[in-house]
Design a protein that fits this description.
This protein is an all-alpha fold. 71% of the residues lie in helices and 0% in strands.
Length: 90
């Protein structure tokens, strides 16, 4: 089985690993429960986020995804170069 760690999000469908998808959904659900259920918000000392704050979360998070995709491009190039060198040395 080929490793997916260097595969782009653009070519790997989200349903290729159902467990990762479920983990993401569960994480978002738990965050929302802690933010919007008053008892949990009191326990964790949180306050609900408004739309402006949610947009800030997405604007700050999106560059991380872009940076990771750029690193994957470089990683694939380095891996291909190493594979080519190993093939030549045989």
């Amino acid at each position: 089985m080929r490793s997916l760690k260097n595969q782009s999000l653009l070519v790997t469908p989200p349903w290729s690993n159902i467990w990762v998808g479920l983990a993401v959904v569960m994480s978002l659900l738990l965050h929302c429960l802690i933010l919007y259920i008053p008892v949990l918000a009191d326990i964790f000392s949180t306050a609900p986020l408004n739309w402006g704050e949610w947009s800030a979360v997405f604007y700050i998070s999106f560059p991380v995804i872009l940076f990771d995709e750029i690193l994957k491009v470089f990683s694939r190039q380095i891996s291909a170069r190493h594979a080519l060198e190993a093939k030549k040395n045989r």
